[in-house]
Amino acid sequence: MTARILLIGGSLNQTKIVHKISLHLQDFDCYFTPYYADGLEGFAARAGWLDFTVLGGRHYRDTMDYLTEHDLPLDLYGKQGGYDLVITASDLIVPKNVRNTRLVLVQEGITESEGTLYRLVKTLKLPRYLANTAATGLSNSYDVFCVASEGYRELFIRKGVRPEKIVVTGIPNFDHVRSFCENDFPHRNFVLVVTSDHATPVAERTHVADPVPFLVYQSEHATCGPEVFTEASTRSGAQIASGPELLQLVLARGRG
Q1: pLDDT of residue 224
Q2: What's the whole-number mean pLDDT along residues 108-131?
Q3: What are the structural domains of the chain?
Q4: Mean pLDDT of all residues in 222-235
Q5: Which residues contact 200 (CB under 8 A, 6 or more apart)?
Q6: Neighbouring residues of 121: CB distance < 8 A, sequence distance ≥ 6
Q7: pTM for the full model?
Q8: Distance between CA atoms of 43 and 37, rounded to whole angstroms?
Q9: Got the DSSP string for 91-121?
Q10: What angle do CA 52, 53, 56 make, to 5 degrees?
Q11: Residue 126, pLDDT score
């Protein structure tokens, strides 16, 4: 008999992650569900009181629209049962009906810093969701925890996650860079700017007041800067004091 797998979505990012994983599991019977909870949290979600979270509101609608658009098999809240494996992108809540099933947790993205709420959750054994993604991995309810990098592996171990459960795999939505090499981008002779609204060092895992790194790529000219774009390489590159100055640089490159 073919093994059955339940994939639990949540935010649209989480839902896309489990969908991408399912594409490598086509020899199995895969079913999908939005994020869900039981007990008091489940009651509150059904009443609409948690529509600002992944348990309802926009996140629930986006996930259901995505699952319907891609014609993915649904088993809302895993009610059919009988699963051999569960895959989820969050363990802040682990529903009772999957706790006795083999479970794989996949890191969804950057985790929040360990602030006061995180310390209270760990010390007082409060519900993990109060600390948001800072509490990712603390349930110990999974058999395998797939994380983004060796750095995150070390971080989760420091938080108390058992090392033997951690596997460094990268994150499906962000780390398969080779997939973007084949594309139908129609434009030529362009200037591309890679930047962000804040500096977010990996070691800090949150926004800081440091200068924002940027990369300017001109399609018709050979690369003249660093061969890689990393936190280290940007520290020795050109320094620009303001956004308007960067814009002037980009426009000048475009005219050149």
Answers
A1: 64
A2: 92
A3: 4-168 (3.40.50.2000), 184-255 (no CATH)
A4: 70
A5: 110, 206, 207, 208
A6: 127, 128, 130, 131, 135, 138
A7: 0.78
A8: 8
A9: -SS--GGGTTS-EEEE--SPPPP--HHHHHH
A10: 85
A11: 93
